[in-house]
Structures are given as C-alpha cells and as structure tokens.
Amino acid sequence: MGALLSRAVWAMLAGALGALVGDVVGRSVGQPGLGAPLGAAFFAALAAAVEGWRGRRLLGWLRGDQARGAPRDTGFWGELGYRVERALRQREAQIERERERLEQFLSAIEASPNGVMLLDAGGQIEWCNSVAADHFGLDPVRDRRQRVTNLVRQPAFVQFLQAGDFSDTLSLVDPLGRRSFSVIVREYGEGLRLVLSLDVTERERADAMRRDFVANVSHEIRTPLTVLAGFVETMASLPLTPVERERVLKLMAQQTDRMQALVADLLTLAQLEGSPRPPPDRWSSVSALLRRAEADGRALSAGRHEIDAAGGEDFEIAGSETELLSAIGNLVGNAVRYTPEGGRIDLRFHARDDGSAEIEVADTGVGIAREHLPRLTERFYRVDGSRSRETGGTGLGLSIVKHVVQRHGGEIDVRSEPGKGSCFRLVFPAARLRQRVAAAASPAAVG
Ligand code: ADP
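A: This is the predicted complex of the input protein with adenosine-5'-diphosphate.
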C-alpha cells in the first residue's frame, strides 16, 4: 500500500512539476492555456517511461539465472529487487545446507562395511553404496535408475524380491561361487525398499572348517577306540596265553598313546588359540633352545640318526620359551620320523642383515612333493597317512608350529624335494631378537 501511495505521490509530483514548467514555457511562447497540460502530460509520460525501464531491468534479471546481483535501484524497484534477491539467496543457502547433509548421510552409508541399496516403488535402483555394487556386480553410477532385477538376475534374488515376504534372510552365492552373501530387505515409505547385503564368506568358511575339524577329531579318536574295543572284547571272550596277552596289551597301549598324543595336541592348539600373544620382553637363549631340541631329538631317534645343533650362541629370542621349544621340538620330531635310519638332521640359526633371523631344521629324509607344501600346516593334513600314524603322528604338529611362529610375529617356510630331504625354517622378526650382552662387553659392543 505504501509503495502504491508513494508511486501515486511521485506521479502527482511529476505531473505538477510538468504543469509548472509547461506553464512557464507556454507563457513565454504566447500559449498560456496549453503549456500546463502539455507539460504535465510530458512529465507524467517521462516518469512512466523511467518506471517501465527500471521494471524491465528487474524482470530481465529475474528471467535470467540470477547468478549476478539484482539491479541496484533506489525506491520501489530497488527494494523489490533487494528483497527478491535476499529471499533467493536464503533459499539457495538452505538448499546447499540440505545438500551437504545429504552428502554426509550418503558418505556415512558409503563407509558402511555392508552393502546398502535403495529401491524405488518400481524396483529401480535409487542409490547404492560401492559395497553393494561390489556384492551385486553393479556400477553405482551407471546403473542408477535401472530395474535391479534386470541387472541382478540370480533367480533366488528375483523371486525373493517378487514374493514380497522379507521376514527371512536370503543367502546368495556370487556367480563364480567364490563368495557368499546374506541379503536382508526392509520396506519403508511408500513401496520403497532398503536392500542390505553382508559378505559371510569368511564366516561360512570358518563354520565349514569347524565342522571339518570336529569330523576329523571324531574320526581320529574313533579309530583307536574301535581297535581298543576289539582288544577288550578279545580279552574278555578268549582265553589268551600269557604271550598273547602281553602282545594284546602292548597293542592296546599303542592305541591309548595315540589318543593321548591327539588329546595333548588338541589341548595345545586350543591353548594357543585362546591365550594372549607371548610377551615381547621375556628373553630366552636361542642356543639353549636348539640344544634342548637336539637332546629331545636324540632321545627320540635313539641313535638312528646323526643330529647336530649349531649357532645362536649370542642371540636371544623374545616370547614363550615353552611354545618355542614345542615348535622346534615338533620339527625335530618330524625330521626323526620322516628320515630313514642313518640320515642326518641339522638345527641351525641364521641372523639376517635386516635384524630378522631364522631357525632351521633340515633333514636328509623322505622329502615332500611340491603339491603338498602349501597344505602341510593344515590341521590333520598328512602326505603319507599310514607312516604318520605308525610313527605316532597326529597330523597336528605343523599347525601347532605355524600357530606358535605366527604368535611370535614370524612365519614358517618349507623347502623340500622327494628323496632329498626337507628344510623347515621359522623366520622371526627383528623385534623378537636381540644379541646377548656379553658379561665383559662394553655397551658399544652390544648389537
Ligand atoms: P604328523 O603328525 O602327521 O607328522 P604334521 O603336521 O607334523 O603331522 O606334518 C604334516 C605332514 O607333513 C606329515 O604327515 C608328513 O607327511 C609331512 N612332513 C612333516 N615333516 C616332514 C619331514 N621332515 N619330512 C617329510 N615329511 C614331513
């Protein structure tokens, strides 16, 4: 209203000024009656033209993209331009804030370790994060607005979406059969769907390993138990001579030994898996470890092999002495069991330039074919099952060794050739080794 009033006042003022000027001019040219109306009309038209021009300028700005500021004017048009521009800029800032929030929200979903996909009411992909794209073989940008069942064609998935009952979880396997996924769908809004996918490959692998492990343990225990039950029955039902009785008892003792060894190894493994890492500051002499493993090997070999340990005199290793001794002892035990009489077994220590070091157990025994090497440390994996069992093996020795070494930050490396012997190396990192301080040595001599 105020603006209209000011426009009217402005028009009247212009008209009055025009009438005044027109009157003066009219009188001077001898037309006193015509001057005032003509002057008023001319000034009013001029004022209207100026107003029209300012209005058009503002309209031109509004018709454009408003990237630049509104025309700077005074009065009505100036205020109109200023207010329109201010409202526009406020709206733009609000949209920008909303856009940033949406961006943050999507970045958070993008960072999710699970796959997240949003479907519209028609089953078209609204958005998906890169994990979902990886799980379903999609392109997060190119496949947007595509119908998901045209892209993910696995019948189980298509049926699941079409059935519309999302109370259960869907299990999917990728087309190459290498990865397994668990898929959950939830409905929201009006017919919109949220598809969540979770990679369960590792979990399923662990479950399968656990099942295999239980099956293997049961099998390993059942065999000696069956043999024992047979002997018990024989002793109960048949009259045996003292010699026969002694033989049967000896065979029974062998089977119980086998079960005891198995249970002992299983307990060792369970303990290794369930206990914290060995301390990094409890130091044991490397040469003492080698000597003790050498002595145990000699006892086991009973003079059938030449066994020699050397090196490591100046070095100490950090960790659990019992575990390390059990690992080296297992390797020496294997070397004795898989090396024919007269063979040689060497225990060595080598310090490397980078500060790491290796403990090596090499034998001149039967050796191992290349195809078995990658699987040797698997539980119950045996190259020659009957030889292993005959010599009291449980099939768990090398997996214990691997566990121990890994718990000490190291790794196991095997080189072997059938008929030429084997060399097992336990490589430990520099952080677990130190050179011993000799009693009389100055600090500068310490490595
Ligand atoms: P086992 O109790 O059967 O010896 P391990 O886990 O200690 O189980 O070893 C796995 C398999 O690796 C053994 O069955 C054996 O076939 C092979 N093996 C281990 N050490 C040696 C070795 N020094 N020489 C030849 N074969 C070996």
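Residues 334-335, 338, 363, 365-366, 368, 376, 381-384, 388, 393-399, 422 surround adenosine-5'-diphosphate (CB under 6 Å). The longest strand covers residues 180-188.
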